[in-house]
Amino acid sequence: MRKITPMILVALMLVSVLSSFDFAELEETEVIEDAGARAGADAEVIAITSPKETSCNQQSCRNEIKVGEETTFSAYIQNAGDADITEMGYTVTVYLSDDSGNPGMIAKDASGNDLQWSNEQVICSNGNFCAFTSLAAGATLDNGKHNMQSGRTAAAGGGSDFTWIPDRGQYVVQFLIDSPDDVDIGNDAQEVYVSVVDWY
To answer: 99-108: per-residue pLDDT in tens?
Structure first.
């Protein structure tokens, strides 16, 4: 009798637990939507093409910039979402860096100005003020590599490239996209480590 009582209690507990399950709900098949594309517009910095990232090993470094060498900025920017981007701007910022490539404070030019350039009118509905009126889903800005430029209007025939005349040092260059249409801000920025050397 002593062994039967615990077994009866376990059986009652199992019946109680199993009666609370809705077996019809367990048999339903739920369709999981494909998450490959994002619902909505999604501006994404795919790659920074200029300046190229400096990479070093024990012997030497590649893609270093020479002091005083005029440097422009370019990148591949894509709409990774499934809707058009109708408004977008971007900012390029040059930060001072340590030996490990960690960004510090914003670098300054010879006049003491921040090394930061912005263009809030890259994409907008008015073609007289912006270079582009929209960016279709899956498309890249400028059909590929885009040179980062200041206020670019159709009437003025285009803007001027963001230009940096670097001093000797180590820097982190950040490209940041700003779009109110964006559904994923996690891919709106990219950074590259850049070393500027005096070769003379």
So the answer is: 888 899 999 9
